[in-house]
Each structure stands twice: as C-alpha cells, then as structure tokens.
Design a protein that fits this description.
CATH class of the largest domain: Mainly Alpha
Protein name: XRE family transcriptional regulator
Order of helices and strands: HHHHHHH
CATH architecture of the largest domain: Orthogonal Bundle
InterPro entries: Cro/C1-type_HTH, Lambda_DNA-bd_dom_sf
Structural class: mainly alpha
Largest sheet: none
Keywords: DNA-binding
GO molecular function, one term: DNA binding
Distance between the termini: 53 Å
Organism: Apibacter muscae
C-alpha cells in the first residue's frame, strides 16, 4: 500500500517545488498543505486532483506507487465500467460523477467558446 502523503512530498521535492508553491497553486495555506504531506489530513479526490495539477503530474501518477499497478484489461466497455461504478459506495460514486460532470461542462464551454470565436 502506498503512503500517498509521502509520495506527494517526494514528487514535490523531486520537481523542486516548496510547500508554499504548491499551497499557493491549489488555493490553501501552507499549514493545511503541510498537514496533507505529513498524513495528518486526508485529501479529498478533488484536492488530489488539484495537487496533481500543481505538481504537473497525472492523478494516477500521484496516487500510484512506482511499482506497476495491474489494471484489469478485461474492463474495456463502458457498460462494464458503469456496472463496476454501481458497486462503489455513494461517496465514491459522487466523486466520479462530479468529475465526469466537470469534464462534460468544460467540453461544452470549450465548444461554445470555439463556436463563438469562429462566428466572429
């Protein structure tokens, strides 16, 4: 099992960022960020996404160990993924749906802006 707080700290140091740099990028104070790195505060999925963005890594790279994680390659179709999501607890489902809703909203906004700019 990976210690996410230690992994976040190691990535931050390897990229040459200070705790203050990351705290500023994710919109929290340094003390709050230090609590995440020391394991005294467990970050939400949303916070992990913000930290990954600030550290310039994919979320999966932030939460996975350096060892390869085997992904069940048989889970390919959307319907299979939906079935697996339905087996998660409500909080995990809400996090996934919030992420999907945000991605869709961003895509729609980009399309709207692109269409508006092309119409000028």
């Amino acid at each position: 099992m990976i210690d996410i707080s230690l992994h976040i700290k190691n990535i931050r140091k390897s990229k040459g960022f200070s705790q203050q740099d990351i705290a500023d990028k994710i919109g929290i104070n340094r003390v709050q960020y230090t609590r995440i790195e020391t394991g005294k505060s467990e970050p939400t999925l949303n916070m992990l996404q913000r930290i990954a963005l600030a550290l310039e890594v994919d979320l999966i790279n932030l939460i996975e160990d350096n060892q390869a994680i085997e992904v069940d390659s048989s889970v390919k179709s959307l319907s299979e993924k939906i079935k697996l999501i339905s087996e998660l607890d409500q909080e995990q489902q809400r996090s996934i749906f919030t992420f999907i809703d945000t991605a869709i909203a961003n895509k729609r906004l980009k399309n709207t802006l692109s269409n508006a700019l092309n119409g000028m």
